[in-house]
Amino acid sequence: TQQYGAILLIELTTAEIRNSKAYQEYYACVMGEAAPKPKVSARQKKGDSASFTTPPTPTPTTTAESAPRLSAAAKGKQHS
C-alpha cells in the first residue's frame, strides 16, 4: 500500500531522484498539495485471455496394479 507522511531527508536523495516524476508525485502528496493516486488494478478484462494461462489440472495416473497390461504373447493365448 502507498503510505505518505514523512519527507525523505535531503541527504538520502540525489538530484536525479528529486527530479524524477515519482519523487515529485510523492513530495506533492507529503506536502498535501495532491492526493495519492489509487493503484491500477492488475485484473484483466474477461475477454482478454491471450496472456491468461490456466494452471495444469492433475491427470489421473494408473498404476500397474490397477490396470495390468498384457504382452502380445499373452494376448494371443486368451480365449474369447
What separation lies between the terminal Cα atoms? 71 Å
**Spatial extent as radius of gyration:** 32 Å
Structural class, by secondary structure, is mainly alpha
Low-pLDDT ranges: none
- Strand residue percentage: under 5%
Order of helices and strands: HHH
Compute the number of helices.
Answer: 3
- Molecular shape: rod-shaped
Quantity of strands, as a count: 0
What is the helical fraction, as a range of percent?
Answer: 25-40%
Largest sheet: none
What's the overall average pLDDT, rounded?
68
Could you characterize what this model shows?
The model has no long low-confidence stretch (mean pLDDT 68). The protein contains 3 helices and no strands. The protein starts with 14 loop residues before the first helix and ends with a helix. The chain has a domain at 1-39. By secondary structure, the chain is mainly α. The longest helix is centred in the first third of the chain and has 10 residues, at 21-30.
Features:
about 80 residues, mainly alpha
Task: Give a summary of the structure in a few sentences.
By secondary structure, the protein is mainly α. 25% of the residues lie in helices and 0% in strands. The mean pLDDT is 68.
